[in-house]
Design a protein that fits this description.
The protein has about 190 residues and is of the alpha/beta class. It has helices at about 40-55, 75-90, 100-105, 125-140, 145-165, 175-185, and strands spanning about 5, 10-15, 25-30, 60-65, 95-100, 110-115, 120. The protein is built from six helices and seven strands. The strands form two sheets. Strands 3-2-1-4-5 form a five-stranded mixed β-sheet.
């Protein structure tokens, strides 16, 4: 049994873990084909979908990240997220969803920095750096791609969701991690 984390984007993060959280596969998928300014071509989308289709195996427990609210490239995001979910469905598989806020919460990243009274919201690159640092600190995981780093966190959540459902000891037991898993489990 594998536990799959998917962070959909034009460069999609894909991580497979075993029941003990060991990495079986980690890769960034990118569709091949002509580029489209500010988006994704049909050829790239189909290529990305085909790559994911080949990577999924029967019995995989899949967790996929939902689109971020207010994303600037809504059409591209919708095409990618919809396409990848369709591929999972076409393979006859199910998936759970985690939202970007839950992914960050799983590694205790709030999206803010500073002290009370002078807090400011982290910008895109700062937020990605904070998530990468948290993944390294909590799990010893590093990767050059922030998409793969997110997919790793999502895969860890998938392992622990399964473990919670099966009344097994969790790998990640910080209160914020348990809260994320419980909120996903309660939506099932």
């Amino acid at each position: 049994m594998r536990f799959i984390g998917i962070d959909p984007a034009t460069k999609t993060g894909f991580v497979a873990l075993d029941i003990d959280g060991n990495i079986l596969e980690q890769i960034e998928l990118k569709g091949k084909g002509p580029t489209v300014k500010g988006g994704i071509s049909v050829e790239q989308l189909v290529s990305l979908e085909n790559q994911l289709f080949k990577m999924l195996e029967p019995g995989d427990e899949i967790m996929i990240e939902q689109p971020a609210m207010g994303t600037q490239k809504g059409v591209t995001t919708g095409m990618i997220h919809g396409g990848l979910r369709t591929i999972i469905h076409r393979k006859g598989m199910a998936f759970n969803e985690i939202n970007p806020i839950q992914t960050k919460k799983y590694v205790s990243v709030t999206g803010w920095t500073g002290e009370v009274g002078s807090k400011r919201r982290l910008k895109d690159k700062e937020k990605k750096a904070a998530v990468a640092e948290a993944a390294k600190s909590l799990f010893g995981f590093t990767h050059k791609s922030d998409n793969v780093t997110d997919a790793y966190i999502i895969a860890r959540a998938a392992v622990n969701l399964y473990r919670m459902r099966e009344y097994m000891p969790l790998l990640d037991t910080e209160i914020y991690q348990v809260e994320v898993i419980e909120s996903i489990l309660n939506k099932e």
